[in-house]
Structure formats: C-alpha cells, structure tokens
C-alpha cells in the first residue's frame, strides 16, 4: 500500500494517523517532492476508476491560471488533463491510497481510508 500525501494537508495527516492506528504496512510518497509521471497518473486513475478531472483540485491557483474550469471533460481531452496534473502535482486531490488488491481510493474521509485497509492493507 502506498499513500500520496502533502504533509501540509490535514486530510493527509488524518489518513496517515488512521493507517498507523490500524497497524497498516504502507509507504509514503510526498507527491509534491516526487511527482507522479503521466504514466503513473494513468495507472492510478485506472485503479481509482476515475477520470483526471475527478481528482483535480480546481480551486488551486495553478488551476485558475490554466483555465481548467473551461477545459473539456471528454476522452479527447483526457491526456491534456493528465499532462497538467503531471506538470502541476499540487492540482492532484489528496491523499490517494493505492490498496494491495490493485485498487485505489481518494482517502479524504475515514470511511475511504478504512475501505483501503479492508482491501488488503492491514
């Protein structure tokens, strides 16, 4: 199990605390310091069952500068979104937990983190 975190994020800190409380085996990826590549983003989106715009923080300054709210949310625009996330990792929703069963969740709630744990992270 791996968790993508921004240490400044309270949701990330809460998720890590819960993983620790439950004795989970996991690695931490500080995705702002070690940004995922476009290929890694494609893989995690597949695991999440989501599209890139579903995990984009559209209120960030970089999102506003890029005009993301006006970008199409279509199959043809998918790669453009992925490239933007790879170039601007601060736009990636957090925390993302990749579970041992090959799935992933956006762990913004205790229930989502527990879901990842139930998928083989204990």
TrEMBL record:
CDD domains reported for this sequence: ArsC_ArsC
Record keywords: Oxidoreductase
Keyword set includes Hydrolase: no
Family: Belongs to the ArsC family.
Name listed for the protein in its UniProt record: Arsenate reductase family protein
Lineage: Bacteria, Bacillati, Actinomycetota, Actinomycetes, Kitasatosporales
